[in-house]
Amino acid sequence: MYFVANWKMYGSLSSLNSLNKVIKFSKSKDIKKGRLIYCPPFTLIDAFSKKFKNCQIGIGGQNCHEDDDYGPYTGSINSRMLKNIGAQFVIIGHSENRAEGETDKVINLKIKSALKSKLKVIFCIGETLKEKKQKKTKSTLSKQIHFGLKNIKNKANIFIAYEPVWSIGSGVIPTHKDLFETIKFIKNKFRDKPQRVLYGGSVNPKNIINLKKVNNLDGFLVGGASQSAKKFIDIVKKTYS
Ligand code: PGA
């Protein structure tokens, strides 16, 4: 199982101390190597990767520009820069960025640039509440997968993160049945090679007890709760207990 911590626009240098607990935990026998991944804001990637130097915790960015080459894009960071600073992963297509106007086409370019820079991609998809109510979950996910992964043959370095938009930060999670069915639907789209699919949206140390019973999941993308080392560790521990 993979556990990805998405810190969003939170965290400062003083947050580094809170990682000590996680580093210690990552070396314990409870957790298989390389299964914890932190995605802090760009400003902390360098400090985090230095901090994680002697342990197996992965590190990633939360977005990147679609051009993997340098260019005149004020305020942007590309996949090459992320790789250069020590990242191995990048989150792409998060609904908070889609809501700012990021299209499937741009997401597709970003994923291609990240793969070119040898980053592993955490590709977020998910339906809005309106789409869910209109029973458009499957058609939304199909469209996001189709256009987001267009002309990408080798998907071995792509993790899909199913994050229903209505679940992010709301405390509401899908029912066991709905989540199992949706993950199955997503996995069935990748018939030739099995694709890893994570769930994200309000994952916390309480609901993980139910979420872990959805046995076709390969891990979790954790937002709010991941800012607390204790909660993040609890989520991992409870998944395995
Ligand atoms: P949340 O965020 O866990 O705070 O709902 C998840 C995410 O946006 O990746």
Beta content: 5-15%
The residue fraction in helices comes out at 25-40%
**First-last Cα distance:** 13 Å
**What's the CATH superfamily, by name?**
Aldolase class I
Gross morphology is globular
- Return residue spans where pLDDT drops below 50 for at least 5 consecutive residues: none
Please tell me the CATH architecture by its name. Alpha-Beta Barrel
Number of strands: 8
The distinct bound ligands, ions and cofactors come out as: 2-phosphoglycolic acid
* Number of separate structural domains: 1
What is the overall number of helices?
Answer: 10
What is the highest CATH level, the class?
Answer: Alpha Beta
What composes the largest sheet? 8 strands, parallel, barrel
| Radius of gyration (Å) | 17 Å
Strand order of the largest sheet: 1-2-3-4-5-6-7-8
Averaging pLDDT over every residue, what do you get? 96
- List the quaternary state of the chains: single chain
Specify the structural class. alpha/beta
Q: SSE string, helix = H, strand = E? A: EHEHEHEHHEHHEHEHEH
Question: The CATH topology, please?
Answer: TIM Barrel
Description:
This protein has 241 residues and is of the alpha/beta class. The protein has one domain: Alpha-Beta Barrel (TIM Barrel), CATH 3.20.20.70. Helix content is 36%, strand content 15%. It is built from 10 helices and 8 strands. It has helices spanning 19-26, 42-51, 79-84, 95-98, 104-116, 129-133, 137-148, 176-188, 208-211, 229-240, and strands at 2-6, 36-39, 58-61, 89-92, 120-125, 158-162, 197-200, 219-222. The chain has an 8-stranded parallel β-barrel, surrounded by 4 helices. β7 (197-200), α9 (208-211) and β8 form a beta-alpha-beta unit. α1 runs parallel beside α10 (229-240) and α5 (104-116) crosses α7. The longest helix has 13 residues, at 104-116. The mean pLDDT is 96. The protein binds 2-phosphoglycolic acid. 2-phosphoglycolic acid binds next to β8.
